[in-house]
Write a structure and sequence with these properties.
The complex is a heterodimer of chains A (440) and B (177). Chain A is mainly β. Chain A is 11% helix and 29% strand. Chain A has a 5-stranded mixed beta sheet. In chain A, strands 10, 11, 14, 15 and 16 form a 5-stranded antiparallel beta sheet that branches. A 5-stranded antiparallel beta sheet of chain A has the order 22-21-25-26-27, with no helix packed on it. Chain A is globular. Chain B has a two-stranded antiparallel sheet. Chain B has one domain: Cytochrome Bc1 Complex, Chain D, domain 2 (Orthogonal Bundle), CATH 1.10.760.10. Classes of the chains: A mainly beta (440), B mainly alpha (177). Chains A and B meet through β8, β9, α5, β17 and α7 of A and β1, α5 and β4 of B. β9 of chain A pairs antiparallel with β1 of chain B.
Chain lengths: 440, 177
């Protein structure tokens, strides 16, 4: 392993962790001041001599705005919004994507959580909404929002990801799109609600029940079949999203939460759960989320959102402003548990260094990884690769394409030409500092 | 008010509930409801035909309903329009989902009936009678040459129609079922 030779101003060396400027992640932990010293190297009193004198902005000299009942982000953050697939509300489905490149940490603000709705967003009167559990149960039961709110609650942080997220990566050439366009159909929130197993304990379960058909109160009455195994494991009837009632686009007043499972199965506007012996083979499981394989066969019941990571900063659309120290930062998650480690490369996968994971590292939740990097101003290819605690590893693009294939030609970026893509994303940094999407 | 008497009563209730077994520690606030009261919502259909309603329809009847209520989005004779084609002989080549059709991909006829009944027409879901849904399903199957032009579809005949792609699926995670 090469030494970078960087001096931090106190005579200490920042250890190179891998090629093309990656610095040992421990430089991030408790050595922030040291890094600041390194960044400031060369800026001495002579540079400060011409500095502008500080003045007060008008906001410091007058009374500010009144306090709103419900606060929204600063008007200067107007670019931090979701992108819409169907802004004119044409009679078809509608997607909104999370702007990962403008966000930090691991919690997706409720206003920026991704949504996909197949018949608009229903305006549901919470007092009139009902959840019915029936079929192969001992006693069918009907619940209101009010009665469910009196049940013991549980909270868990969980990502939700559309089975079609990252679908532009099936293109044979890298599509020049933001991380929002490529991976924006995944978000992470703290969900609070009643464990489904608690409600099933009250209805009783006929041992013949192998599946639960979940159905929404939206206009397509969206329906998916969920194995009883998952229903009795960690499934939740969620009522709250990041502490407040679930957003209308995310399933108000209640949704099914199946941590780590394909977003579409997490049925929103949940109104009915029917226990049955066979899966219903609804449209979405029979068609949409059954990906075609190169052999001509297709996968069915994919369920899992497999281990994935991508770098959010820097990413496509950014321009680095000159050589120096940067933090590479991104998101990793897995439907099969906690993230074990994330490796980062700055040389297109020739060498790798282990990234720092931001605590807390939670099961089936976004995990933020960080990696210090000294950019020397030359070409670089940034990649991240995640491992989960179950031993699953994010495939390289070559490995993924060998197993799952790729398209003959790119599809429109908002289309879903295939599903369940989870291989490595590569960002190419040019000498100009411009960041492009590349395959490496 | 919390009194010693009430404390004793509460404690004895807890004991009684615990002793009764499985319903020990849940609030039991669900209201019992019978299947008859759920019937209007219970539109679940299984691939073997379980749950299919009474009624029937023929391709000829379906053609009339299709022209009136479906062709605006799905095109004349199901050839496609703003919404997907429903009648096609296209084969799947490569992995693009855009190639999926009813004939080359859908494994069970019940899926077609179920989706029409729960979600179509897009602007007026649940507005079709069960007879109309059978007729539209029959029309789509006949146009795709999966049934004869005068075959009636009902709860007995529909699940017996074998779809060409029925056996072409691999269960991705069988251990999770």
């Amino acid at each position: 392993m090469a030494r970078s030779g960087d001096r931090d101003g106190r005579g200490q060396t920042l250890d190179a962790a891998a090629g093309n400027g990656l610095i040992d992640r421990r430089a991030l932990l408790g050595r922030g001041v040291v890094i600041a010293g390194a960044m400031g190297a060369g800026i001495g009193p002579s540079a400060a001599a011409g500095a502008e004198p500080l003045t007060d902005g008008p906001w410091s000299l007058e009374i500010g705005d009144p306090t709103p009942l419900y606060q929204v982000p600063s008007k200067f953050e107007a670019k931090v919004v979701r992108t819409l697939s169907n802004p004119n509300h044409e009679p078809r489905n509608s997607h909104s994507r999370t702007p990962h490149h403008f966000l930090e940490g691991t919690t997706t603000p409720n206003g920026l959580h991704f949504t996909i709705n197949h018949g608009g967003i229903p305006t549901i009167d919470p007092d009139k909404h009902r959840l019915v559990i029936h079929g192969l149960v001992k006693q069918p039961l009907e619940f209101t929002l009010e009665t469910l709110s009196r049940y013991p609650m549980t909270s868990r942080v969980s990502f939700v990801e559309c089975g079609g997220n990252s679908a532009p990566m099936f293109a044979p050439e890298p599509m020049q799109e933001t991380v929002q366009a490529l991976h924006g159909l995944a978000s992470c929130a703290e969900w609070t609600g009643v464990k489904l197993s608690t409600l099933l304990e009250e209805t009783g379960v006929d041992p013949r029940a192998k599946w639960v058909i979940a159905e929404g109160a939206d206009s397509p009455h969206l329906s998916r079949s969920v194995p009883m195994k998952k229903a009795l494991d960690d499934a939740m009837v969620a009522l709250y999203q990041n502490g407040e009632r679930i957003m209308p686009g995310n399933g108000y007043p209640m949704r099914l939460l199946l941590p780590g499972y394909e977003g579409n199965m997490n049925v929103k506007f949940l109104r009915r759960l029917k226990l049955v012996e066979q899966p219903g083979m609804s449209y979405y499981e029979a068609r949409t989320y059954s990906p075609i394989l190169p052999s001509g066969k297709a996968y069915r019941f994919y369920f899992l959102q497999e281990v994935k990571s991508f770098i959010t900063s820097p990413s496509f659309g950014a321009t680095l402003k000159g050589p120096g120290l940067y933090e590479i930062s991104g998101i990793a998650y897995s439907g099969t548990g906690r993230i074990e480690k994330v490796m980062v490369s700055a040389d297109g996968g020739k060498s790798w260094a282990q990234a720092a994971l931001q605590e807390p590292v939670l099961s089936k939740a976004f995990t933020r990884f960080r990696m210090p990097w000294r950019w020397d101003g030359g070409p670089a290819t940034l990649q991240s690769r995640a491992w989960d605690e179950a031993g699953n590893v994010q495939p390289t693009r070559a490995e993924f394409v060998a197993a799952r294939g790729q398209l003959d030609k790119p599809a429109p970026v908002l289309a879903f030409p295939n599903q369940h893509y989870n291989s490595i994303t590569s960002w190419g940094v040019a000498s100009s500092g411009e960041v492009k999407h590349v395959y490496a | 008010m919390f009194t010693p008497k009430r404390a004793i009563f509460t404690a004895s209730m807890l004991l009684a509930i615990t002793a009764s077994g499985s319903f020990a520690e849940t609030p039991n606030l669900g209201k019992p409801i019978d299947e008859a009261a759920i019937a209007n919502w219970d539109i679940s259909i299984l691939p073997d035909g379980t749950g299919l309603p009474k009624g029937s329809g023929t391709p000829a009847k379906g053609a009339v309903i299709y022209a009136e209520k479906c062709s605006g989005c799905h095109g004349d004779n199901g050839k496609g329009g703003p919404a997907a084609a429903l009648v096609s002989d296209k084969k799947i080549e490569g992995i693009s989902a855009a190639q999926k059709t009813i004939k080359n991909f859908i494994g069970d006829t019940t899926t077609i009936f179920d989706f029409i009944r729960r979600a179509m027409p897009f602007q007026a879901p649940r507005s079709l009678s069960d007879d109309e849904v059978y007729a539209l399903t029959a029309y789509i199957l006949a146009e795709n040459k999966l049934i004869g032009p005068s075959d009636e579809m009902n709860a007995q005949t529909l699940p017996k129609v074998k779809m060409p792609n029925h056996d072409n699926f691999i269960i991705r995670f069988p251990d999770r079922i």
